[in-house]
Amino acid sequence: MDPKGVGFDNKEEGMEEKKGISRRDCLKALTAAGSATLIGSAVDAHAYKKFSGWPNRCGMLADTTECVGCRSCEAACNKANNLPKPDVPFDEKSVFEEKRRPTASAYTVVNRYSAPEKPGTPMYRKVQCNHCNEPACASACPVRAYTKTPEGAVLYNKDLCFGCRYCMVACPFSAPAYDYESALEPRIVKCTLCYERVKKGGIPACAEACPVEAIKFGKRKDLIRLAEARIRKYPDRYIDRIYGEQEVGGTSWLYLSGVSFDRLDFPENLPDKPLVEQTKGFLSAVPLVLVLWPAFLGMAYAATRNKEEDK
Amino acid sequence: MRKGIPLAIAFFVWVCVASILPAGAETGGAASPAPTLTGGMPETVTLGSLTDRYEPVDFDHSGHVDMASGCGDCHHQHGADQLLGCRNCHSLDPSAFRKSVNVETFRSCKECHAGPSPKPDPARTGLAAAYHRACFRCHREVGSVGEDPKGCTEMCHERKETVKTARDEIPKTVPR
Prior knowledge:
The complex is a heterodimer. By secondary structure, chain A is of the alpha+beta class. Chain A has helices at 6-17, 22-47, 72-80, 136-140, 166-170, 195-199, 205-209, 220-233, 275-310, and strands spanning 58-63, 109-113, 123-127, 146-148, 154-156, 177-178, 188-189, 215-219, 253-256. By secondary structure, chain B is mainly α. Chain B has five helices and four strands, in the order H-E-E-E-E-H-H-H-H. In chain B, 28% of the residues are buried. The model of chain B is unreliable at 15-39 and 162-176 (pLDDT under 50). The interface between A and B is medium-sized, with 37 and 32 residues.
């Protein structure tokens, strides 16, 4: 910034009139600038419009107590998304020997957990993108390749992506996977909540394929009511909690369980506030700092220079 | 007293089967003859209304009657989830309560649990899930169901050869 701009010329004249207190003025100005920066960031963090999500957004309710680990959802997802054939067939149980996460060729995976209190009836957890109400992946993306749709799905646009993979770091559920096959065409892959099928009036492929309806598709608010009703009706079967109702501001996928969620490897260290809010204060201060600090440092420079010229 | 329960279950299952069989025939499943009645109870029941990928299930009814502690184990009208009032099926005369089951008022499973639909009601369990949940109440702890994805075909279902699904195209052997 050029200190000899029009605005600064006026200020220089003003400062020349009160040479004796130019240092004090300068300190005052700097203090004011500091306070303005702090207040500015605090105000901005609260100034954004409170948005509690699209009213009719859809979601999925996964009942981990019903899942029998048949992997029908994995097979249906593979077929619906035209994904490549897996190395191990879908009716093979050897995949349960290790904990898997979604990959470029499998948008969803089912993991098995032992239940010592009930030998012979292991527990299962289906893992995929949870389609957060306020997705951290979207806020981390520098090129806005992610969109939260009114239907509830968090969609990814590969045409905008340049492969930084910030979204993979930002996601608290390790959902986005990276397609390492093509180095020149970066591509993140993850569950789309079968957006195209839902737009056509259908339901996601995994929910359709589940033989016990352990996965139900519907309006998120209806699913929460349904889950609450189930917990009330079968208090011995479920713990009194719906995972995903509050976590990181709420997710489209909701889960019921009979055991504490950490036993099924659900992250338990997540705040109820959206992760976006953790960074909002800092990020909104950046423009203020970038504009205000050069201005006041420029003033300080101008004041000091005048004093030197006087000597 | 005990004799009345199998009689009641027999009528109920017979109504279920009567409503299921025609649908099974439509979908290409093997249409079985009407169940043989032994003491008013079918020995086997063919569940074949939902057979797009699998062959119909030949359900050994009499075998299950021997094993179950009561009809309510499977027929949830008599279980904890009772939906219908007693009068819907039984005569009001207490002396003839169990003997006077009115078959006409028995409801088949699919009256409440709808078959496959493009947009199922999340609050109501579908027909296939209702069957499966009833089976898994016991079979999760017996046999390999719930332990091995192959359990479904080992225990009840034969996979249909004619229908090509994503699963069928997948190699059957695990690469080393």
